[in-house]
Write a structure and sequence with these properties.
Helix content: 25-40%
Distance between the termini: 32 Å
Number of helices: 15
Radius of gyration: 23 Å
Strand order of the largest sheet: 1-2-6-3-7-17
CATH superfamily of the largest domain: Zn peptidases
Strand content: 15-25%
CATH architecture of the largest domain: 3-Layer(aba) Sandwich
Structural class: alpha+beta
Number of domains: 2
CATH topology of the largest domain: Aminopeptidase
Shape: globular
Length: 451
């Protein structure tokens, strides 16, 4: 490793530790997260010659930071490097180390956000600063966005900025989380690029009953008992597999033998082959090919000695490309069976699946520059099963991918387990690789190539 690479890795490691320790935990409330802490850190880190800085507050404490290196050609495209600064809540009792300690142990930085996605947010900032200090003069403009509120649907982050500060963040090409995990295959190393994501569909199911005394439960109309059956049915429901274009392209590019590839591309055989895959991969592959239904929240009951007469459930539904609200509701009713007419289903959110094409200059640039670190590797399209801020830009017909560059120490299996999971950590080599990647992509896409 060169001295330049070592310096980038060290700088990124220290900045990541600071962002983890800021504990910008987003529980969905407007007064949570306080991303202003990390926005201020990043502003101080980046401040200096070669770039412009602006901050935007969607609500008190909900600050996003935008940095720009203006291009020389106003007709050339703009590249946006976008990382979020908020993280999801954590249960410290389930962790081996302090989730907000930012400890460096055996070459790994531990803490909430190390994988999702402070590692990328940090490496983008370090790369941006290094480019600015080097006198980088691109044809197209390079923008860095450290955005708030990604973990709660972007109302105080990307959605707000697109609605109120559009010119500050609009770009032709966008890179955010969370591809780039080296994936071995029978015909070489693959680097998944997130070209699309599943849709968000939230529903509230209201279950009614009849109040009574808790000491006389015989033949009562207990809303909680009915709700338990609703949860069981929704939780056990398996929607039909759907072989969409992104999934087909991914599997066909992997070079799996026919006895594996065939079932993975078969509506009838896919669910059977999932049983034989590692758990993390099986969960990813299942979610990539099915609309999923997860009961996640329940509210009901008023007192231990009162039979509850109402219970509310919330179900997190993630929709596949081409699946609209009517299709999803029809599947939910199928899951509920004869209870579908006995409950009230209320739609509380809907954001359709989105995707970007692969025949783009950004795709070509990623394919080219990654050869520096993984010669002979191939970028392959992949669908993320969670939501990212990329969707706000795809709505505007902008190309948005999820990517990064990670060492082979981070497996696809471990990556999936640590996303919103316990003992989240990232190796410092991955931090250095991603930092070098962003510098190379900016130079390749915005400077050395005709666009």
């Amino acid at each position: 490793m060169s001295e330049n690479s070592q310096n980038a890795e060290q700088e990124c490691t220290e900045l990541l530790q600071t962002l983890i320790r800021n504990a910008c935990v987003n529980d969905g409330a407007v007064d949570s997260a306080h991303e202003i802490r990390s926005a201020d850190v990043l502003e101080n880190f980046l401040e200096g010659p070669g770039l412009e800085l602006e901050t935007y507050d969607a609500a008190p404490g909900r600050r996003s930071l935008v940095a720009r290196i203006e291009g020389s050609d106003p007709t050339a495209p703009t590249l946006l490097l976008m990382g979020h600064t908020d993280v999801v809540p954590v249960n410290p009792e389930h962790w081996s180390r302090d989730p907000f300690g930012g400890e460096l142990v055996d070459g790994e930085v531990w803490g909430r956000g190390a994988v999702d996605m402070l590692n990328i947010t940090t490496s983008m900032a370090v790369a941006f600063k290094r480019l600015a200090r080097s006198g980088f003069t691109p044809r197209g403009t390079l923008v860095y966005l450290a955005v708030a509120d990604e973990e709660a649907n972007g109302s105080y982050g990307a959605e707000y900025l697109m609605a109120h500060e559009r010119e500050a963040v609009m770009a032709d090409y966008v890179i955010t989380e969370s591809g780039g995990i080296p994936l071995p295959s029978p015909n070489g190393l693959k680097l998944p690029v997130i070209v699309g994501e599943k849709g968000l569909f939230g529903v509230r199911i209201k279950v009614g009953g009849t109040a009574g005394h808790g000491s006389q439960p015989y033949k009562t109309d207990n809303a909680l008992v009915t709700a338990a059956e609703v949860v069981r049915r929704v939780g056990e429901f398996q929607s039909e597999a759907h072989i969409h274009d992104t999934w087909r392209r991914f599997i066909e590019s992997m070079g799996y033998p026919e006895e594996i590839a065939g079932p993975l591309l078969s509506v009838d055989g896919l669910d059977d082959v999932l049983e034989h895959l590692p758990l993390g991969m099986a969960r990813q592959f299942h979610a990539c090919t099915h609309t999923t239904f997860a009961p996640t929240v329940i509210h009901g009951g008023s007192k231990i000695n009162v039979i509850p007469d109402s219970v509310e459930l919330e179900v997190d539904i993630r929709t596949l490309p081409g699946h609209d609200a009517d299709m999803v509701l029809a599947e939910l009713r199928l899951a509920l069976g004869d209870l579908a007419d006995a409950v009230t289903i209320e739609q509380i959110s809907y954001d359709p699946s989105s995707s970007s094409p692969t025949d783009t200059p950004l795709w070509d640039s990623l394919s080219r520059v990654t050869q520096q670190w993984y010669p002979g590797s191939e970028t392959v399209p992949f669908l993320t099963v969670g939501a990212t801020d990329a969707r706000f830009f795809r709505r505007e017909d902008r190309v948005a991918y999820g990517f990064g560059l990670f060492s082979e120490n981070l497996t696809f299996e471990d990556f999936g387990k640590m996303f919103h999971g316990d003992d989240e950590r990232i190796d410092t080599r991955s931090l250095g690789l991603s930092t070098e990647l962003w510098e190379a992509v900016a130079q390749d896409l915005l400077t050395t190539r005709e666009i």
